[in-house]
Amino acid sequence: MPASDHSRPWTAPTAHARLDARVQLPGSKSLTNRALLLAALADGPSTLHRPLRSRDAAIMIAGLRALGADIREAPGDGQFGPDLVIEPGPITGGTAIDCGLAGTAMRFLPIVAALGDGPVAFDGDPHARERPMDQTIAALRGLGVEVDAADARLPFVVHGAGAVRGGELTIDASASSQFVSALLLTAARFDEGLTLHHRGARLPSLPHIEMTLAALRQRGVEAHATGEASWRVEPGPIAPLDEQIEPDLSNAAPFLAAVVAVGGRVVLDGWPASTTQVGRLLPELLAPFGATSSVADGALTVEAVGGAIPGATLDMHAAGELAPTIVALGALASAPVEVTGIGHIRGHETDRIRALVDDIAALGGTAVALPDGIRVEPAPLAGGAWRAFDDHRIATAGAVIGLRVPGVEVDDIGATAKTIPEFPELWAAMLA
Ligand SMILES: O=C(O)C1=C[C@@H](OP(=O)(O)O)[C@@H](O)[C@H](O)C1
Ligand SMILES: C=C(OP(=O)(O)O)C(=O)O
Q1: By Cβ atoms counted within 10 A, which residue in 152, 345, 368, 387 is the most buried?
Q2: Neighbour order of strands in the sheet with 194-198
Q3: pLDDT at 6 > cutoff 60
Q4: In 3-state terms, what secondary structure has residue 206?
Q5: Which residue minimizes the CA distance to atom 16 of ligand 1?
Q6: How far apart are the CA of 177 and the centre of ligand 1, in A?
């Protein structure tokens, strides 16, 4: 799946009535891409039910196929497309992988490639070449794997030698939890497993690391935290697993934020009784803005009265991928909204802090970049251009603001193809 074309500006629909909608969302990116990778490393075939079908998932599938896995479609329950059956094969080199803009692919797949028996060339979209990759390259070298890299970013070539010994390694995951998850995901296939330590200024997105550990344990791998920033994965087989992928709770963020923006209620089907997804924090993140949430019969209901949106100060270091949505609410709020703990989102699909500051300014608002976050001041907004910068979450942040501000023109709603290609249709259905 190519990057979206940039030829389709999208006028964000304005809400004319309080919401009363039921929403079903496609599968989780983070769960789908972990399940695909672990299935490709397992010792038997796995089936994924309701996997995400999006650009990031397609990139992971293509990458794993290039490394030797057989991945094919099988009839599913029809709601969000076919199931996927993954037959692992020996990891092969002598190939090239296009990571697009998928952080999971560019951080996870090079570690898998190290198990292979030849060179694997990695590259991605132009902006992918700006995303932090230094810890992937340093970790591989620290594990004795040769990497050809002009600097500490894409593109680079991993020269697998057929096996990785593993042992003990220290990295600095301040820029992304994905550096940790990547190593843990493949470590059961290292001869000695891996004891991994993080030493650095901060550790973002800890829930995603916990998701990684849980995904490993579900497949019979001994994997656990040994301290606040240390983990151990024992060497051993990875069991195949038939797994139903949960809906993407991070992509629930704009739909639930819409309730705060407009008032009314949204019922989100498929809310898991327990989950490792960081989107489980949405009820508490939206509460300061006046949203109340309840769970019944496997669905989350979020309700709000609408009207003035209060200000809030939130530390979102654990949930940086939800920050653009919260900042969008901040742009609509009647008092300042400050989100901190998210300096690392400057290295996401785009520099998200800069993108939000610039986009909010283009609508007449005021947002200020902080060293590790962003502060939005109350201001009347007017319609105008909202640039997506190839970033699904910046695109959907524009949609949230457009609910209350007529004439917000998202330049590239196709950016949502990264994790939720159905976004424009699902958004329209919520408002219908
Ligand atoms: O492991 C994962 O699936 C992810 C980890 C997080 O990355 P960062 O720690 O780089 O924020 C998150 O933001 C990203 O969307 C998905
Ligand atoms: C940061 C994100 O993606 P990626 O997996 O590309 O890092 C995201 O989805 O918000």
Answers
A1: 345
A2: 167-171, 194-198, 230-233, 223-227
A3: no
A4: helix
A5: 30
A6: 6
Contact 277 CB / ligand 1 (< 6 Å): no
Cβ(176) to ligand 1 under 6 A? yes
Q: What is the DSSP letter of 372?
A: T
Q: Which of 101, 104, 108, 205 to mutate to test the pocket of ligand 1 (most atoms within 8 A of CB)?
A: 205
Just list the catalytic residues.
321
What gap in Å lies between CA 427 and CA 261, rounded to an integer?
14
- List, by residue range, all CATH 3.65.10.10 domains of the chain: 10-25+248-431, 29-231
Q: What ipTM did this prediction achieve? A: 0.99
Q: CA 176 to CA 120: how far, in whole Å?
A: 23
We find that the CATH architecture of domain 29-231 is Alpha-beta prism (3.65)
Q: What is the Å distance from ligand 2's center to 425 Cα? A: 22
366-393 tens-digit pLDDT: 999 999 999 999 999 999 999 999 999 9
Atom 8 in ligand 1: which residue has the minimum CA distance?
A: 176
- Read off the pLDDT of residues 356-367 as tens digits, 9 standing for 90 and up: 999 999 999 999
Joined tokens for residue 266: 């949204």
What gap in Å lies between CA 234 and CA 142, rounded to an integer?
A: 18
User: Between 3.65.10.10, 1.25.40.20, 3.50.30.10, 3.40.50.300, what CATH number should domain 10-25+248-431 receive?
Assistant: 3.65.10.10
Q: How many residues belong to the chain?
A: 432
Q: How remote is the CA of residue 380 from the centroid of ligand 1, in Å?
A: 33
Closest CA to 6 of 417, 345, 363: 417
From CA 6, how far away is CA 412, in angstroms rounded? 5
Atom of ligand 1 nearest to the CA of 204: 9
Picking from 398, 423, 388, the residue whose alpha carbon sits closest to that of residue 52 is 423
Closest ligand 1 atom number to CA of residue 345: 11
What b/e readout covers 120-157, taking b as 16+ CB neighbours within 10 angstroms?
bbbbbbebbeebbbebbbbbbeebebebebeeebbbbb
Query: Residue range 66-93: average pLDDT?
Result: 93
Residue whose CA is closest, atom 7 of ligand 2? 103
Residue 177 is labelled as binding a ligand = yes
Residue whose CA lies nearest to ligand 2 atom number 3: 103
Model pTM score = 0.97
